[in-house]
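To assess whether the prediction recovers the assembly geometry, we first specified each molecular entity separately, as shown.
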Amino acid sequence: MTKFLQWVEKVLMPPMAKLSEQRHLRAIRDGIVSTLPLIIVGSFFLIFSNPPIPKLAAKMSTELAGKIAIPVRITVGLMSLYASYGIGYSLSKSYKLDGVSGGILSLTAFIMTTIPLNIDGIGWTLPMGNLGGAGMFVAILMAIFAVEIMRILQTRNISIRMPEGVPDSVARSFEALIPAAVVITIIWAVRVMIGFDIQAFIMNIFKPLVRAGNTLPGILIPILLITLLWATGIHGVSIVGSIARPIWLTLSDENMMAIADGAKILPNIAPEPFFQWFIWIGGSGATLALVILFLTSKSKYLKQLGRTSILPSICNINEPVIFGAPIVLNPLLGIPFIIGPMITGVVTYFAMYFNMVARPATLPPWTLPAPIGAYLATNGDWKAAVLVIINIIIMIAIYYPFFKAYEKQLLAEEGKIEEELS
Amino acid sequence: MMKIIMVCSGGMSSSIVVNTIKKEAEKEGIDIEIKAVGTGEFADKIKDGWDLVLVAPQVRHRLDSFEEQAKAAGIPIEVIPPQSYSPLGGTKLITQVKKYL
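The predicted structure of the complete assembly is given in tokenized form:
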């Protein structure tokens, strides 16, 4: 096991860390993460529009529910719109280009792939269907396209320069003129004049990937990679998430929109809250169970670590445990840390596959205690909170023998130190 | 007074370690100001005039880009070793900081 962990650190970790640091992937991650506050607030409106309390839900008229759900449509329903600006901003910043110009140009490029409709009595209208999670990959590729055009033109020195003395902001808007003209003309020609549906084309390419994210291997692979990376002390979610988050958010958006449209059974099992609330209970590796065991430990060190880290653990912050225990490069605690979440992953997947527990949709803030987070994420299914408790018990059982073996090791060391002191 | 900026993934876990360093510094009578930031804010916050950058171990794979920015700002940078990154690592943490007093 020690050798295996060293192998993970030397062979698996560097290319993955490098990949997640790749310029475009980093811009995608930062851009998408910047939309999370909107999605979390949207989540709350969704919960209020479908209150988890049956008595309240019965009193709620469809009209009122529809009104409460408007912020959901504006936040979650337009998620890709905000992300496209964020991705364009981050990517142009990484090239040391003007961030605001890059963001706006990306936004334009993304909207240009949607054709507005002129509806009688309403006027020109943009169909929103593909501006939410469904259009995420379109937003990503259009942002990259727009900023790369900007960069190529800049490096070839093709831009309109203002004489000195012109205020910065004015000069900047002129500098963005040619890139904007090129981007808009190309997309207009392809989408409107030739009539090639860019959105459908990109969405079809990525559809298998999004659907794969919703299968059993699709949840087990990210779970395994995340714990493997954390077992070497690297932030697993931040690396794996930079690739998987667009998929998770697309799944999540489909579920939220299904709720807003009144569906009872949701289409997807594995949006991000699946991992957050049912698997990472207490943080990556489901370490809340381990901290509970620490509290009962005869080892002074583990007991004190348990006491200082129980509160952060309830809020899903577990760096003190991962580095304090340590779990990092510790074969004894590493085994349950890696294997346990795969088991609770399978249990949770099938509980939701057979609709014994509601499927998660919304994104409550990640520092809530897991049973509450799971209850809110599933739009108020109490069975979800029960499943979280079951998963904690499973994790306690898996950690227990390894914890006991490790405790024995520490007790022997602590005994030795005390002997030397006396 | 010594001003330290610490970077971790979201700025959450590091605030626990920040408190540990603060307590330990108080015990030893060292005057420090220390702030935790997430990787996203780092590029902006680094310009606010610091004496030392500490990098949390779980984001050490991004050290290259942090190092570049710290160098540009002329600030020394150190990765916290995994074994001291916990609320019980106070003594080790303060020894690491004291080198830059």
